[in-house]
# Entry
Amino acid sequence: MKQYGGKQEEKIIKAKLSDDVKDYGNDPFFIKKAEQSKAFLEKHGFPKELVAKR
Amino acid sequence: MHNEKYDCLANRNFLNYEFESYGPKGSIKKVVRFSPQNADGITYFNLGFGDLNTATGEIDDLSISDNKDKDIVLSTIASIVIDFTSVFPDIMVYAKGSTSSRNRLYQMGIAANLEEITALVEVFGFKDNTWKPFEKNINYEAFIVLRKQK
# Structure
């Protein structure tokens, strides 16, 4: 596998763990998206097929 | 799946992934965030994706970077989802683009990599007020995936 920043050709990548990756949990954009998803799913529900398979 | 992908990094809780897009516009850092959330008593992850604005440190998912590497970026996101669901196989991942064009982009990413994605995860799309198994050439409003259970 090539270094971070390059391209690699394994079919499924495995991410390298790094302490340099920030936690974006407090980013306003991601907070807003998560809240929107909750509203959508509380209105429309989840696929029953997937709920049953968890 | 598209063979070419960018290497990516994840932090130790696997909720945050980063990779860099390379093209005519230079290097653009991309972030994928899986936000734990709960709806109707069911825990799931919301997939958020955007460009990191290095000036503000915030994420912008409305930017159109036009770095001529759309297929590589989409394939990388698909691989990240597969990687992530190997860590959290029992929890659904929900994704919905901020705009209809971004949603179509997600759809293209799933469709282009469908064979390898569906070998490992089940994919549903939301259309006409119902969830249905993902099919190519249908415009969905949102997507949910779950790792196939062994």
